[in-house]
Amino acid sequence: xxGFVIRKLLRTLFTLFLVVTFVFFVLRLTGxxxxxxxxxxxxxxxxDELRKQWGLDRPLGVQYLEYWFNLLQGDFGNAYRxxxxxxxxxxxxxxxTLKLTLTAFAFIVIAGxxxxxxxxxxxxxxxxxxxxxxxxxxxxxxxxxxxxxxxxLLSVTLRWLPAYGSDHxxxxxxxxxxxxxxxxxxxxxxxxxxxxxxxxxxxxxxxxARGMTERAIIWTVALPNAAIPTITxxxxxxxxxxxxxxxTETVFAWPGIGRLLIDAVTARELAVVxxxxxxxxxxxxFANLAVDLLYLVIDPRRRYASGTGEG
Amino acid sequence: xxxxxxxxxxxxxxxxxxxxxxxxxTTGAWKCAIVEDVSLRVRSGEILGLVGESGSGKxxxxxxxxxxxxxxxxxEGEIRLAxxxxxxxxxAGQLVAVRGREAAMIFQDAxxxxxxxxxxxxxxxxxxxxxRGVSTGKAREIALxxxxxxxMPDPEERFHSYPFQLSxxxxxxxxxxxALAGRPELLFADEPTTALDVTVQSQILxxxxxxxxxxxxxxxxxxxxxxxxxxxCDSVAVMYAxxxxxxxxxxxxxxxxxxxxxxxxxxxxxxxxGHVPEGIEGQVPAPDKRPPGCAFAxxxxxxxxxxxxxxxMGAQGDGGDSVACFFPLAGDLGRTExxxxxxxxxxxxxxxxxxxxxxxxxxxxxxxxxxxxxxVSGITxxxxxxDRLAVIGESGSGKSTIGKLMLGIEPTxxxxxxxxxxxxxxxxxxxxxxxxxxxxxxxQNPFLSLDPRATIGSQIExxxxxxxIGTRQERRARRRELLESAGLSxxxxxxxxxxxxxxxxxxxxxARALALRPKVLICDEATASLDVSxxxxxxxxxxxxxxxxDLSIVFITHDLRLARSLxxxxxxxxxxxxxxxGETSPMFEAPEHPYTSQLLASMPDVEATDSRTMETxx
Lengths: 311, 618
Known about the structure:
The structure holds two protein chains of two kinds. Chain A is 77% helix and 0% strand. Chain A has a domain of 199 residues: MetI-like fold (Orthogonal Bundle), CATH 1.10.3720.10. In chain A, 31% of the residues are buried. Chain A has 13 helices and no strands. Chain B is 34% helix and 22% strand. In chain B, strand 6, helix 7 and strand 7 form a beta-alpha-beta unit. The two termini of chain B are 18 Å apart. Chains A and B meet through helix 9 and helix 10 of A and helix 2, helix 3, helix 6, strand 11 and helix 13 of B.
């Protein structure tokens, strides 16, 4: 089991290495920060001087090695414009994004699981069909559209909530729904089918035969078994949430790293972009690592899994 | 076995009484009776065998008695357990209170009937706490005691095991312990040993008998295996197409069956004495296609006009003798008369012919995470043209590995495997494709080896297409021929696997295997998942194919009776070693190796004179 964890960790680190390398080269091959920053009629000599000053005139390979050299010492580089360390700029924005994504994640679990269970238990009834129709609608709506729809309905028409801002708890409502609806819909469907499969298993019939109540069977036997495959989807969900937060933060002017990323890409603030991408990539990769480890905790069959012969 | 004093419960003279039970299934506007007018009675301390082929309604009857059928099912008639009339039970709450306390149930697949992610000790403890209303600490003690009572090896240690860490037999012991948790007066045992090895099977049967002696609970033992019935039951009720057709004491039923169907079932059992099973022609009619008269009439040689139109009076499954037949057999029909009437002359074994497949001092290793695991070693045996070789042994003995070596699915780690003098090519190499035309596999589960989304016909044609044989018309013609030689109607070509029965599926798989006119057919437990009567007919088919098509057969099985009835030679495997090899009859009559005699002794046998005194292997 320790071997398994070490292998997973090594793979995680390798993935991060690939991400850093890929982002480094793609950013530098797609545009020059100096010409993006200065007015079009700037003297070329000044542009050259700036490039030299920021180290952009040296060969790409050298820049790449230097970047790693600094990175390993914890230096993520500085923003070109105000010279502040990129890590500092990003760190200011992380709490807002964390608040948004974690709340959305909670929303996904709290809405998705009960809906899925409820649909499975009432399989084939109007309740089931209703929940599944809502679910299809939920993950078919692009989240920018859902966001705009919510603003139109709740802010513009009904005037219940402000269209943007991030100071109060109620500012979270619309962004969280926008970000979490698709995930909740996917989880609901997945939990439903997983529950249906488990509810047909022989051990459920055996539980009934020994007089367990239906409620006890659903919550103490069926749900723990059905939750196991759902964990994988939850890992993916973290990725979807981070991707979705870029759009959601833009729609609701939420001061998180998603919006920071958009601004930094436009301004070609290479160090900032790189730091944001690295942090998001790391959180996704570690979320998946966490899922793999979680499996070992909740599924005894994996804990004891080992190769066996046969007859 | 000592148990706490509170284990004993007042006896109820009849813990189960069913009268006039009809169970129907409603789907949409369509309603169909699955079980019709069934009456049963089980006395305390009695083991009643409920026997019949699948689809006869045995399991539905048991589930109905526990109120376990879903909302689509309706029951009429009366079911009474020790204290509760199930048919009057008010709502789900009362049913839940009955289950586990008045009657419990164990199932065929014990390993799948336990929660896979909870330790067995915990599952047992929770059940005890709930059913007996005791504290968790006390329940834990009782649970451990129950594990001891079901003779679980190392109960303290196993207490902390998950179901997947235990064998099928151990899981069945756990299931039995769970069933005993609520001290029920009645136990429904639904094919509890069907999935187990013979030696484990006889241990579980002994356990059920000794628990019955100890607790005086009544047992309804559902099975299709008459050998098991003879072993364990006091009385028998034979079900056919949803009705009880005959009932009586086990001695009377086995020695003097009066319903033609019962006789057919008994004669379908392969026996250790080399009895060739006949099988029963035709199939159990589907519930919605039952004829107005006796449901067995279409398959019955004795049927007369009256049988087709009138329903014979139902038999009562109350232990007393009764038979639902207008023209029952004379009860005193002797064994020899029956055997003579039904037996056919055994086929003589062919003369010495060339060797087709041989293994020469072969060994096979499997790679596992902990290194290499030797599945078989030092195997030397050969299959000559016309041979029917049985490879027998318990699971884990390496018998499937022999098949894999012969098919080139696994390479030999030592020694060699040869086919007609040349090495067997390994699966995936270019030589293997040509080799596969000569040696074909018939696997255990026909449903798994057929594509659920392709018609039977197209799957039978597929090998011909792959090997580019014939034109489209020629392949169609060959397909028809293959279906017929496998005993299938050509109309089935357009059906999908789920639209036909298990026996038909296995026939389709055999037809597909025959498409390339192979010399050797390797059957890996090919009949293990089929009903006895279907099993017998598949064996009959294989025997016929052997005769008509010059096929040589390797028949891998754990069922010694099938081996005896089909094969000319037998190889006995144990723990990866070949312990005995020889011609069938001499070996069954005078086995040389002690393990072979052990295997023979632990086989439930319909014809054994008194197998009740048989000793269990340790």
